[in-house]
Write a structure and sequence with these properties.
about 30% helix, 5 strands, alpha+beta, 4 helices, five-stranded antiparallel beta sheet
């Protein structure tokens, strides 16, 4: 499976009084991961917005395994888990070297500027085709 990797250094402001990363910061890291993945696929969010498309989060989950701490260098792995005509699901892993710190996902709807759902295949066949190709390549990487 094609996975994009982003590196992040935990800042002091990301931690609580115990020096442990505040739980909501993982969601910020997920955003960094999916933004970089989409850019790597040649589809930065700006391109979606130029096509009157937006991807609001409609569901999020995060399973915390081991806490990240101040000054840790972490790897954020991001991939597309599933793609449907009106939504996409991204998967994430947060790691410190080989140690799994957290695993999560975000589900996004494809909507227009008024917030109405759109069928991506019809609204933007070009972007739909690019995402399908990325999914095909990811599927091929699993073999």
């Amino acid at each position: 499976m094609m996975r994009d990797e982003s590196r992040i250094r935990v800042r002091y402001k990301d931690t609580d009084q115990m020096g442990i990363v505040y739980y909501a910061n993982y969601l910020v890291w997920f955003e960094i991961g999916r933004t970089e993945l989409m850019r790597r696929l040649g589809m930065p969010y700006r391109e979606f917005e130029k096509n009157n498309l937006y991807l609001p989060v409609i569901r999020v989950s995060c399973d915390y395994k081991v806490p990240a701490r101040y000054d840790d260098e972490i790897a954020l792995l991001t991939w597309i888990e599933s793609l449907q005509e009106v939504r996409v699901v991204f998967g994430y892993e947060v790691r410190r070297e080989e140690e799994l710190l957290a695993r999560g996902s975000t589900e996004h709807a494809f909507v227009n500027s008024t917030g109405r759902p759109v069928v991506l295949r019809k609204h933007s066949p070009f972007l739909w085709g690019r995402l399908c190709k990325a999914m095909d390549e990811a599927h091929g990487d699993k073999k």
